[in-house]
Inverse folding.
């Protein structure tokens, strides 16, 4: 077997034989703490972005449903008005809109950032603890 170093560099260990045609596909890149932290940060950022998009999709869908309900209520009201032949009636109240709390979305983002900062602080503490143990 061998060990992967850097981008695309493969070092063979003495006594190890790579099979013909093997180009090191079995090797995994070893990531340090900073790379792992950066990767987690990017994943959280992508999740936050997707959560915002999902909230917008749900808001648009709720608006469509409310508009459809309003149109149906107006059509029913017109039908009732015509049936009563001249009697005046109050227009129907529009369907209540579903409220999507942007405050909750903001709190979720702040919580994720706080957790990310805690992870970074924990990683720093682990690093310094490891240095103390080596001495």
């Amino acid at each position: 077997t061998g060990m992967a170093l850097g981008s695309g560099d493969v070092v063979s260990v003495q006594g190890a034989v790579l099979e013909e045609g093997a180009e090191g596909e079995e090797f995994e890149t070893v990531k340090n703490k900073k790379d792992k932290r950066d990767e987690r940060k990017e994943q959280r950022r992508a999740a936050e972005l997707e959560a915002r998009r999902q909230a917008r999709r749900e808001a648009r869908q709720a608006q469509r449903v409310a508009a459809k309900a309003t149109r149906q209520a107006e059509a029913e009201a017109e039908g009732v008005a015509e049936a009563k032949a001249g009697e005046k009636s109050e227009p129907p109240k529009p369907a209540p809109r579903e409220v999507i709390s942007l405050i909750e979305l903001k709190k979720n983002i702040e919580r994720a950032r706080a957790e990310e900062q805690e992870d970074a602080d924990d990683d720093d503490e682990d690093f310094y603890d490891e240095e103390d143990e080596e001495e």
Notes: The helical segments are 33-83, 102-134. The first helix runs from residue 33 to 83. The radius of gyration is 30 Å. The mean pLDDT is 76.
